[in-house]
């Protein structure tokens, strides 16, 4: 089948294209169209065969009911029975808009549209193109999201084309959608009404209008082993090809944990994706890093989420680490979709960060021009299981000075360089609970411990790796003394590497 693609702009609608699309639907065909939530795959909701075609095109299980889209309030009475007053109030307040209500169905609605259920889900979309199409199609358009089953929902016509080209009759290209997440679904057949799927219309928005609103316990969290009440929610929905892992906790810890996890994954040879936000993106280094939006304005995150999941698919990443979001307002819907995409794989940031004892290692010498910088550079060249910021500092640095020339000569002979190094004085401001200070001799260690307190981690390098002695300063001696110093440091750094790596073993 050749799929016709026609562009139509919300502000400058192509009436002819929409009429053509309506005629296709009336004849039992399939048309993908923009709504304010995601692109829908439309069919005539009252035509049983058309529903069957929808399931076939999406590769969707036929027990997963479709939402019937209407454009006028009068249309509701033909397809739903026992419409409660609260539904009328919700419609007055939130229709047209991203709210789907579930009612007992009338005889007019075939069971193939409702996946065999006696209830029908109904929504009146706000998108003008969608409304015009629904009217052109006779008033009742069933539409699930216009993606291949299991893939992230489409938020652009291009996403639809990638999934369904050749399988449907037409795509109405209305550009990018506004909201980016599927509608809120609320079951109006129970008292109080119950949210089966969170969306842009939240419980806090509905409660002032109709009073209490319940939330299906399967909406968030992996603890429940009950089947979700919206049949579609039981599938591992919206899923990217890669394994998606949500990292939960406060944002500072989440960033540290993701950095740690990425470092480990990249070291294992995996291609890693990171879902970062505008506020955190600058803290990540390794992997394919994508900005899904701003924490300040979570609507941007909702709008980008599915597109970013698709981009990760295109980049063929093996694993995606995602930050988590507060579950208030639209955040509830964002976390719900993320959890579905992750198949409920969640990990606590604190649990991850507690696996790493130190994050920064600083080698302390007198002048920071020879032993310290050598040790730091040697450690940077080791295969460390965890990521460390590695530096060196001096106890008596009066002005920035480059590294000793003989030290640089022996480093060069081992294919390393300290050419970029400038001596820096040790300062109290750098001390925190995650820093490991390794000095060259006991007097440096004692000085730090006596000046800055005993609860900081300061050791001589030799002591820390369990050998006797100190590292002598080769200053003023011949080149071969510098060579010997580097060799001794190199042995100690091997032992240090082993010790640090043992922390990552649990
Ligand atoms: P989609 O628009 O692709 O997200 O699919 C429609 C969603 O609405 C699916 O999650 C369905 O399970 C849900 N749905 C449709 N009809 C009903 C219904 N009668 N009762 C409960 N959920 C429904
Ligand atoms: Mg869907």
| Rg over C-alpha atoms, rounded to the nearest angstrom | 31 Å
Stretches where pLDDT is under 50 for at least 5 consecutive residues are none
Estimated helix fraction:
25-40%
List the ligand species: adenosine monophosphate, magnesium ion
Number of strands: 21
Structural class: alpha/beta
Distance between the termini: 56 Å
Which sheet architecture does the biggest sheet show? 12 strands, mixed
Discrete helix count: 16
Shape, principal axes of CA atoms: elongated
Q: Strand-residue fraction?
A: 15-25%
Mean pLDDT: 94
Structural account:
With about 500 residues, this protein is an alpha/beta fold. The protein has 16 helices and 21 strands. The strands form 3 sheets. Strands 1, 2, 3, 4, 5, 6, 7, 8, 9, 10, 11 and 12 form a 12-stranded mixed beta sheet that branches. A 5-stranded parallel beta sheet has the order 15-14-16-13-17, sandwiched between helices. Strands 19-18-20-21 form a 4-stranded parallel beta sheet, with helices on both faces. Helix 12 links the parallel strand 18 and strand 19. The longest helix has 25 residues, at about 480-505. The model has no long low-confidence stretch (mean pLDDT about 95).
């Amino acid at each position: 089948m050749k799929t016709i693609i026609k562009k139509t702009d919300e502000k400058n609608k192509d009436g002819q294209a929409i009429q053509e699309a309506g005629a296709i639907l009336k004849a039992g065909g399939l048309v993908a169209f923009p709504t304010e939530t995601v692109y829908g795959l439309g069919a005539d909701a009252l035509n049983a065969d058309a529903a069957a075609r929808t399931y076939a095109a999406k590769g969707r299980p036929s027990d997963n009911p479709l939402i019937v889209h209407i454009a006028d309030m009068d249309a509701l009475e033909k397809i739903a029975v026992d419409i409660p007053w609260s539904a009328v109030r919700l419609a007055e307040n939130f229709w047209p808009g991203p709210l789907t209500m579930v009612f007992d169905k009338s005889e007019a609605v075939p069971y193939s549209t409702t996946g065999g259920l006696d209830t029908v889900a109904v929504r009146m979309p706000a998108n003008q193109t969608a409304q015009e199409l629904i009217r052109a199609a006779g008033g009742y358009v069933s539409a699930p999201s216009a993606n291949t089953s299991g893939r992230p929902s489409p938020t652009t016509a291009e996403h639809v084309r990638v999934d369904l080209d050749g399988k449907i009759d037409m795509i109405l290209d209305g550009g990018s959608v506004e909201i980016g997440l599927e509608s809120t679904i609320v079951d109006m057949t129970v008292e109080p009404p119950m949210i089966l799927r969170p969306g842009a219309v939240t419980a806090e928005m509905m409660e002032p209008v109709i009073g209490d609103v319940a939330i299906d316990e399967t909406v968030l969290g992996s603890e429940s082993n009950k089947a979700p009440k919206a049949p579609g929610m039981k599938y591992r929905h919206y899923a990217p090809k890669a394994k998606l892992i949500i990292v939960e906790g406060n944002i500072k810890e989440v960033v540290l944990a993701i950095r740690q996890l990425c470092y480990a994954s990249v070291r294992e040879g995996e291609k890693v994706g990171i879902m970062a936000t505008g506020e955190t993106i600058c803290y990540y280094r390794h992997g394919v890093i994508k900005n899904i939006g701003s924490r300040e304005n979570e609507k941007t995150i909702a709008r980008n989420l599915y597109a970013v999941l698709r981009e990760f698919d295109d980049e063929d990443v093996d694993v995606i680490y995602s930050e988590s979001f507060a579950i208030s307002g639209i955040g509830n819907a964002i976390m719900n979709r993320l959890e579905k995409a992750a198949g409920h794989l969640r990990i606590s940031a604190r649990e991850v960060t507690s696996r790493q004892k130190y994050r920064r290692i600083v080698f302390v010498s007198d002048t920071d021009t020879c032993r310290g910088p050598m040790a730091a550079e040697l450690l940077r060249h080791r295969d460390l299981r965890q990521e460390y910021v590695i530096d060196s500092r001096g106890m008596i640095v009066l002005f920035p000075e480059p590294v000793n020339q003989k030290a640089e000569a022996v480093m060069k002979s081992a294919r390393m360089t300290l050419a970029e190094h400038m001596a820096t004085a040790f300062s109290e401001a750098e001390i925190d609970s995650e820093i490991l200070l390794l000095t060259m001799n006991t007097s440096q260690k004692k000085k730090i411990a006596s000046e800055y307190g005993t609860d900081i981690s300061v050791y001589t390098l030799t002591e820390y790796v369990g050998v006797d002695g100190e590292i002598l300063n080769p200053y003023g001696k011949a080149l071969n003394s510098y060579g010997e110093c580097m060799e001794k440091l190199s042995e100690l750094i091997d032992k240090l590497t082993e010790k640090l790596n043992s922390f990552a073993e649990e």
